[in-house]
Write a structure and sequence with these properties.
Blueprint lengths: L1 H24 L14 H4 L4 E12 L4 E12 L10 E5 L3 E11 L5 E5 L5 E4 L5 E4 L2 E5 L8 E12 L6 E2 L7 E13 L4 E6 L6 E5 L2 E11 L11 H4 L2 E6 L1 E4 L2 E4 L3 H12 L7 H10 L6 H15 L1 E2 L1 E3 L10 H7 L1 E2 L1 H14 L5 E5 L19 E7 L4 E4 L19 E6 L2 E6 L8 E10 L6 E11 L2 H8 L3 H11 L5 E11 L5 E10 L4 E4 L2 E4 L21 E3 L3 E10 L4 E3 L6 E5 L2 E10 L2 E10 L2 E3 L4 H15 L3 E5 L2
Parallel strand pairs: 1-11, 7-19, 18-20, 26-33
Antiparallel strand pairs: 1-2, 2-9, 3-8, 4-5, 4-9, 6-8, 10-15, 11-14, 12-15, 13-14, 16-17, 21-22, 21-24, 22-23, 24-25, 26-27, 27-29, 28-29, 30-31, 31-39, 32-38, 33-37, 34-39, 35-36, 36-37
Helix pairs in contact: 6-8, 7-8
Length: about 650
């Protein structure tokens, strides 16, 4: 009897253990699909809640690995609908397998399964690429009864391991997290590195049967509401980055213990790809024969490259990292950022001007790379031309900008310069406030019985050009549409628009707009009219009031705005008493507003300097007040009186 009881207990224990194996292997939490079980704290200000996310990345060798993902996310309202979609990219080095999804209603009951026909497969760069094997799998659960829950399970197999995955429990603003787990399993003798940012826990490390397991866990993270201006997710919230010390990608072995090592791998990919045929070499020498300096030669050849080539994306195989040979670009007249940069370097080689192929993480709002963590963190290539007292940076994908201008796409960040010795970090140009200016002069002829007429001349200088390029380079119809949306005037008609671009290392775009203003003067009495100077509001924004600022106030670039607004008064009218001049000084900048009258004109002269910096979150009220005071000052009405 006792023996039978022991056997029964033994088999019951084995049964329980077997039941728990999948739960333990997937991170230790039982999936929960009921919306009612989500805490009110996690629902607050949330459009969705990540109930459970488990990512397991297992490395088999320097070239092979597999990632297993289980994601359960509850969608609370229509604002979170996009978060219910499945989007995963793949290419010839990665394969997505065993993809399946399930939709549950608010009570946790299965509504439908997602597979087969629900899975769409698209080119990831359709319309921008001549050659590419980057693709994306996409699922829209096609369910709109809120709230609901969707679960996805899938594997990704890797053949080539230049990149290891990163982990960010937060995936979007206004999405909270119940439980997120990131786990890596590597062979005992496999060397890799990890970098933790804003992670308050401690990585769990265990060893079993010749393998080492690393586990990071995040629980109960309340949703984040964006509080711009602030740094990126990577800089503000939990982030774990991983990278192999040694890797094999497309049978090309490399190491990235140091930036020098990683740069050497890139350099080896590029060897022999800057050769141009004799006819092209002769063409290059002919183009620069009368140039007076190396910088002039660079500008001539850069302009030649721009006029001859166009940008396309090339993402086939190792083509994601290895540029087309320069001779192919010369023959075909197109290439991606790598190919065009390599081609530009080839042209400079013929001219015997030293230059360097350079990798950069490009994007106006992209954070700086983690410079202490050598690894592939780049998405773009440019050219560096070092002179004795200066450095010229060349953005080779643009057919319009001047040599030496980078703009907000690649300014002020660490880049990896590639040379014969490997890679080394450098910093791209940081633009000062005097290289980021909007200067505007507006003259308004005020009329009582007919529309008032405005002539507005604006100069965009340096980085400020980036905000007007989309309009200035549009066709006439698009220009008008965009300007109607950007000019903060109550009722107006655009009569004409012209742009004149001055190309230089600090570019300038001059914009001239002729406007007619309907009912611009507000009648108070037969003898008195009110004028509101709305012309200041074109680029103005007011930060919202926030009860609790969670992160620092990060302003990446300093700038200057100057405005001169001139009102020509109607015949028979004079200005009433003008407002007092205003001067505001703050850690965030300075603001000055002056009024004066002369020859039946009112002059309003405004200057705003915006400071760059990383300011403590406790200063948010000061920041908000600075811009609120500016807004009030900008909108102080003027009155004009009829002469008696």
């Amino acid at each position: 009897m006792k023996k039978k009881m022991i056997q029964k207990y033994f088999f019951f224990t084995i049964y329980i253990v077997l039941l728990l194996i999948p739960i333990i292997s997937m991170g230790g939490n039982t999936p929960d699909y009921k919306i009612e079980n989500i805490s009110e704290t996690l629902k607050k200000n949330s459009k969705a809640v990540i109930r459970y996310e488990y990512t397991l990345f297992e490395v088999y060798s320097t070239s092979k690995a597999k990632k297993t993902i289980k994601r359960i996310i509850s969608i609370l309202n229509e604002n979170g609908l996009k978060n219910s979609e499945f989007i995963e990219y793949y290419n010839s080095f990665t394969k997505i397998k065993n993809l399946e999804g399930v939709v549950y209603d608010k009570d946790g009951k299965k509504v439908k399964e997602l597979s087969g026909k629900d899975i769409k497969d698209y080119s990831a760069i359709s319309g921008f690429s001549v050659y590419d094997d980057n693709r994306v799998k996409f699922i829209d659960p096609d369910y709109r009864v809120y709230p609901f829950t969707v679960e996805y399970n899938y594997d990704i197999e890797y053949e080539g391991l230049l990149n290891f995955p990163s982990w960010t429990p937060y995936q979007d603003y206004n999405v909270s997290v119940e439980n997120s787990i990131f786990r890596m399993i590597v062979p005992k003798d496999f060397k890799f590195r990890h970098l933790e940012k804003n992670y308050n826990g401690e990585v769990q490390i265990t060893e079993n049967e010749g393998k080492i397991t690393y586990t990071w866990v995040a629980d109960y993270l309340e949703s984040i509401t964006p509080q711009t201006p602030e740094k990126s997710f990577i800089e503000n919230y939990i982030f774990v980055k991983t990278a192999p010390n040694e890797f094999v990608f497309n049978k090309q072995a490399g190491t990235q213990d140091t930036w020098k090592d990683f740069g050497e791998w890139i350099h080896n990919l590029n060897i022999g790809r800057t050769v141009l045929d004799p006819q092209t070499q002769s063409k290059v020498l002919e183009l620069i024969k009368d140039a007076k300096s190396d910088e002039e030669k660079v500008k001539i050849l850069y302009t030649y490259m721009q006029s001859k080539t166009r940008y396309v994306s090339v993402q086939v195989g190792i083509g994601g990292w290895q540029p087309f040979p320069a001779s192919d670009v010369d023959r075909l007249n197109y290439g991606d950022c790598k190919a065009l940069s390599n081609y530009m370097k080839a042209l400079l080689d013929v001219a015997e001007i030293k230059s360097h192929y350079t990798l950069v993480l490009a994007g106006e709002d992209e954070p700086n790379i983690q410079s202490q963590f050598p690894s592939n963190q780049f998405n773009h290539a440019i050219i560096c031309v070092p002179f004795a007292t200066d450095t010229l940076w060349l953005e080779c994908t643009s057919q319009t900008i001047a040599a030496g201008y980078l703009g907000t796409f690649t300014d002020d960040r660490d880049v990896l310069i590639i040379d014969n010795n490997g890679g080394k970090l450098a910093r791209t140009q940081k633009y000062s406030a005097n290289e980021n200016i909007i200067s505007k002069k507006t003259t308004v002829d005020l009329n009582i019985s007919t529309p008032s007429l405005a002539h507005m001349e604006t100069s965009f200088i340096g980085l400020a050009c980036d905000m007007i390029y989309p309009i200035s380079r549009s066709d006439a119809e698009d220009r008008k549409k965009q300007l109607y949306n950007s000019l903060a005037l109550p009722s107006f008609n655009i009569q004409s628009i012209t742009y004149n671009e001055v190309k230089s290392r600090i570019p300038r775009i001059n914009e001239v707009i002729e406007l007619s203003l309907n009912n611009y003067l507000n009648k108070l009495t037969d003898d008195k009219y009110l004028v509101k100077p709305e012309f200041f509001k074109r680029f103005a924004t007011i930060p919202p009031k926030i009860t609790l600022k969670t992160n620092s106030i990060y302003i990446k670039r300093e700038s200057i705005e100057t405005d001169t607004l001139i009102y020509n008064l109607p015949t028979g009218f004079e200005p009433a008493k003008l407002p007092n001049d205003i001067s505001i000084k703050s850690d965030f900048g300075t603001y000055d507003l002056q009024y004066k009258t002369e020859n039946n004109k009112i002059f309003i002269i405004r200057k705003l300097f915006t400071a760059a910096g990383d300011f403590d979150k406790s200063m948010w009220n000061d920041y908000q007040k600075f811009y609120q005071d500016i807004y009030v000052s900008d909108n102080k009405p003027l009155s004009i009186n009829k002469l008696k």
